[in-house]
Amino acid sequence: MRIRRWVRAVRWYLRELTGEAQYDRHCERHRRHHPLAPVPTRREYQVLRTRHQEARTHSRCC
Q1: 35 in helix, strand or coil?
Q2: What is the DSSP letter of 39?
Q3: Crossing angle of helices 20-33 and 2-18, rounded to 10°
Q4: Dist. CA 33–CA 49, nearest whole Å
Q5: Among 54, 27, 52, which Cα is nearest to 41's?
Q6: Cβ contacts of 27 within 8 Å, gap of 6 or more
Q7: What is the pTM of this model?
């Protein structure tokens, strides 16, 4: 039981660290707010996210 809990914790941490969980949350939110629109692919999401970050340069420290 402890090993299973440890594996789940490590998996959660890695998904948060790599941004995979963020994409999943985006898909859930997109389906909820735009049920008829197609869900963007992971690649499309990354492009949109990068464009958004570059447009908002004041929010970055460097």
Answers
A1: coil
A2: P
A3: 80
A4: 18
A5: 27
A6: 39
A7: 0.67
Residue 17 in tokens? 């660290």
- The radius of gyration of the chain from alpha carbons, rounded to an integer in Å, stands at 15
Taking the alpha carbons of 38, 43, 48, 49 in that order, is the dihedral positive or negative? positive
Q: How far apart are CA 61 and CA 37, in angstroms?
A: 35
Give tens-digit pLDDT for 39-58: 999 999 999 988 988 887 66
Q: What is the mean pLDDT of residues 24-37?
A: 94
Confidence of residue 62 (pLDDT cuts 50, 70, 90): low
Task: Determine the residue type at 36.
Answer: L
